[in-house]
Predict the 3D structure of the following.
Amino acid sequence: MGLQPTSIPAPSSGHSNRQVSHKGSFDGNRVHRSAILEEFRNNKHRRWELTDMAGHIVEFAGDQLGSRHIQSKLDTATTEEKEIVFNEIYPNVLQLSMDVFANYVVQKFFEQGNQAQKTQLAESLRGHVLQLSLQMYGCRVIQKALEFVLVDQQHAIIKELEGEVIQCAKDQNANHVLQRSLERIDPKMNRFISQAFVGQAFALATHPYGCRVLQRVFEHMPEDQTRGLLEELHRFSNNLMTDQYGNYVAQWIITDGKKEDAAAMMAKVKGQVLLMSKHKFASNVVEKAILKSTEEEMHQMIEEILAPRADGTSTVGVMLKDAFANFPLQKFLQASKEPQRALLFEEVASQLNHMKKYSLSYGKYLVASK
């Protein structure tokens, strides 16, 4: 059913926005389709132009087929046609931004509209950025706006999230807005994001959404904004590596972090290679450590797994039989160099001989690594 203009309080931005509702097509509260929308959906032979929809753009935008058609037409629309669409969506931009289908029309206008239109659309979002960022469809519109508006409006938009950074970082929708800001906006304007993370680095690193935002901070913010956060994580390295989400941050530090941070994380792997390899999440970190290690670091880790355990049993034998540790062992076999390589394969062969009665569902893959 089509989306119709309705009313909620509009932002106090000085322009005469009509008031609109937050209800969207996903809330099951739609009105009946107009005759023209019904004709559009049923008459497949008529060539529909944007001018044919004039007066019904909002309704068409809230319809799945209508939204797609508007988006397609905007790609090649004339200035006059774009003006027709803009004049109807602009007073209803909040309602449309939070609608399952109509949000795509707003996004498309941030791509295809002229600069004045983009500026007006962005201005109409002012005062509602947090609300939109936390909403499933609104967050996409905010991300698109950050890509296509002028710098001063980028800053105005993202600054509305100041004081709400942790909430946004942990939100399934708003985290994407923070990520886009970190990727697109001058780091100076994003300082409030990294500053809000101080003392929260580990909590964010072990959060399903926060871990993504934290990695973007490390990628795009300057050293003075990331050093304290990294130091906080180094204090909790073991917990980070064994966490369902934190292990991804630990992997990032090893593969993409600064040399000294990668070395510090690598040092925490050494001395507990078997323990970490047997862990569902930490084993991924061990694999990255193997791939990024220096020759000396690799030598030390292989020495560690070639050494027998305290009870005299083989470390390699344990890794062969373990559902997770056998994967780091494969990486060791592939990356090792002589003379350690020969010693490692010799130990694997010896342990396989002792596993005649054991299912070789993991160990058999290691033989193929030679």
In short: The CA atoms of residues 111 and 148 lie 7 Å apart.
